[in-house]
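testing teh design pipeline on a random one, pls ignore if ur not involved
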């Protein structure tokens, strides 16, 4: 069974047409109405979608978890996600799911930057590039469009994925989960349109994504998150200490201020480094325990 999930929040203007178009390419369309205050749910249901309603706006990550859970209950073989605001073209669903049908990938991302046919607003381009670069480096995976919401998942991925992010950082979280669960990622070119202005301020949206990425680094790569800065701070402390020694050799005086700074930086750096090592070890142990339970 091929299922399309459309998370939606106050999308009564577009949701009907998106559902009707998507139904041509999938077996079931599922709309997750995330606390909309308009007629999103009613229009989606009239257009033929299964509607799951959240009483309050709980965030895209929570909406996707609801959709994935229902997809598992329906034994979905392939799951495709697209937005309800008309940005994604349902007619490109066959393109996005093709690598999964061919057994080439577990997760497929529709990228607006592979063929550069999408008319992306200038300020969005720089934001997307910044978040994509950060997510690629921190997650250990590589994409050209980490923030695209047009995605497809194999049955293997559907069974393994559960999102912890509640907001729009959920797209970045998928890269961390793909690395953790050893799921193969592939991108395909798609065209993304911008028929309407964003409902959320760009700065607020960006801050939310950045906060989510930093939180995920701490959860998925604690050695990098704590150990990396720890090493830098520790080296800074040692350099200050070397300066104290140099001053003492030349002037036979103890630079008390420099010495205190050196000790402080060295202690903070050491604590951060060992925190990263300990959390890294604990995370590895938890993963081993989960694998043993599954067996």
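output:
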């Amino acid at each position: 069974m091929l299922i399309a999930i459309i998370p939606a929040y106050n999308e009564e203007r577009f949701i009907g047409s998106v559902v009707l178009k998507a139904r041509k390419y999938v077996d079931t369309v599922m709309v997750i109405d995330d606390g909309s205050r308009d007629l999103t749910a009613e229009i989606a249901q009239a257009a033929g979608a299964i509607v799951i309603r959240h009483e309050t706006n709980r965030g895209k990550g929570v909406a996707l978890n609801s959709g994935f859970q229902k997809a598992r209950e329906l034994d979905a073989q392939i799951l495709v996600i697209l937005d309800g605001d008309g940005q994604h073209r349902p007619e490109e669903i066959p393109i996005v799911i093709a690598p999964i049908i061919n057994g080439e990938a577990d997760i497929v991302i529709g990228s607006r930057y592979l063929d550069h046919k999408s008319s992306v607003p200038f300020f969005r381009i720089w934001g997307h590039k910044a978040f994509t670069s950060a997510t690629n480096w921190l997650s250990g995976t590589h994409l050209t469009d980490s923030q695209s919401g047009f995605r497809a998942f194999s049955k293997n991925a559907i069974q393994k994925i559960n999102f912890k992010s509640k907001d729009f950082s959920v797209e970045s979280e998928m890269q961390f989960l793909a690395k953790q669960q050893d799921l193969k990622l592939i991108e395909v070119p798609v065209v993304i349109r911008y028929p309407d202005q964003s409902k959320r301020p760009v700065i607020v949206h960006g801050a939310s994504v950045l906060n989510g990425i930093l939180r995920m680094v701490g959860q998925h790569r604690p050695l990098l998150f704590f150990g990396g800065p720890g090493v830098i701070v520790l080296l800074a402390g040692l350099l200050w200490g070397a300066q104290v020694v140099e001053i003492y050799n030349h002037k036979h005086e103890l630079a008390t201020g420099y010495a205190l700074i050196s000790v402080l930086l060295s202690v903070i750096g050491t604590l951060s480094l060992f925190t990263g090592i300990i959390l890294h070890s604990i995370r590895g142990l938890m993963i081993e325990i989960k694998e043993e339970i599954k067996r």
